[in-house]
Amino acid sequence: MSLHRALARHGPAGLGLLLGLLALGPALGPGFVLRYDMVFVPDPPLVFGPVFGSGGSGGFPRAVPSDQVVALLSAVLPAQVAQKLILLGLFVLAASGAAALVPPGPEDGRTAGRFAAAAFYAWNAYLAQRLLLGQWALLLGFAGLPWAVRAAAGGGSTGRYAVRLAVALVPAAIGGFQATLVTAITVLPVAALTRRARAVPVSLLVIGLVIGLLSLPWLVPALGARAVTDPAGVDAFAARADGPFGTLGSLLTLGGVWNAEAEVPGQGSWAVAAVRLALTAVALAGFAGLVRAGERRSRALAVAAVAGLGVACLGAFAPGVLKGLIGWWAGFGPFRDGQLFIAPLVLCQALGFAVVVHRLGRLGAAAVAVPVLVLPTFALGAFGRLAAVDYPGEWRRVQAIVNGDPAPGALVSLPWGAHRAFEWNGGRVILDPATKMFSRPVVWDDTLVVERRAGGAIRVAPEAPAARRIGDLIRGGQGSLTAEFAAQGVRFVLIEQSNENEFLSRLSGASPIFRGEELLLLRL
Amino acid sequence: MVKVLAALAVGAVLAGVASVAVVNVAAPTPEPPNKPLYNYGTR
Predict the structure, then answer these.
(1) What residues in B contact A420, CB-CB < 8 Å?
(2) Which residues of B touch A379 (CB under 8 A)?
(3) Number of structural domains in chain A
(4) Interface pTM (ipTM) of the complex?
(5) Whole-model pTM?
């Protein structure tokens, strides 16, 4: 194989690796990367059954099967190494997949085009914001999306088609429900609009079956959950303007995530937003050329992108419709965070950018740097927003005590709130690590509180039945909780010391079995 | 030749914007909080 061919073939994956190294920066040091939903813990337990996927409190299985896969990987690798491999793998998979989708063009420009698509798809506001929100499991689906599109548009016998599709959907399947939904909304139109007319019904059936089978790990517990979805989540999680061009401008420039804390630092300034908007215009113009040229896969991707953009706009511009749908059936809940469905639009723009770079010929090689230059502050862990830290030793000791106890019973994590901002984690907000550490059901407050910059807060009611029961007990007065907790099947209570006084007086009779600087563990 | 000049101009603009963005963001950040409870985020 000539050097040129080797570069063309493997270069995009290498570029993805380089971009991953640049984006993660300090997060690749020793320790765990902890931010919002990204909570990896040392020696994560491999748990199934009643604990499966929701921390055991009966909520929706949001971390299925991603947490189980991490636990399996951590059986052979240190958990922090597994996390870093997953995070770097996202960039490699995304870059190589986008490059593989680039249609043929002039030979001297095609390699540059493939690199351009790879750089664009592995370095954009969507990936950055979702990473800063800690949603690595969703990003598995995003990274695998180009490969899923390639498989869905592929040919061959039905058996081969199904096998290729199943392999391509593995990242999304590991990611869980969000990753799978984003993939489904993309591959269904691709199959419908790229396959021969006679093959379309069979292809759609195969896709439905493969997605259905791969979704069973989260679909079964979701259908059996007695959890509820609060329509207030639409107000909390709808797409929002993260720059000067409004919500629609933010979505078109591939941002618009609901959480202002997940913005890439500095992305909202006029200059940065303007050059990103200019790049969007160039990329969409290039993609329009592909569609006009009759490239079937591009036409199908355009349909998926419009559909995804429509979902994102629904919560932002017609929240009443989505609230009504969620009130009617909780299964519409995933659409409240609509911005995540613009993933196919990212792919369209990456391919459009590649087309423009094709036309530049040899000059196109320099264009590979453009996605980085228009969002430079994603580098170095978004300038410290992502970093590696160690858990204080007492977390490991509490984990060993609780997981070493053969007696059944749940653990309640206090104070009663879902998120923490520890000093040892640089003040970065994370989901309570107790939800991932223990091999028994963990009851935690899954109420989500989102602050409005304009003032006030949106409270999204808890989903899990156990959380609602325990929350009612805690809020129900100042009396003793010991007997009532025990009646709910609670064996341990984990309290952060700063809140010790608030709860100890209400847990009379409970035995302190570990007391550290930060944590107090009680056994009922 | 025109293509090269245009590419240089675009590159200079992008490099300028990127430099300003990085300088602004790289400023020192305040002490981190140590709050046991925290919001999921801000809109």
Answers:
(1) 35-38
(2) 22
(3) 2
(4) 0.87
(5) 0.95
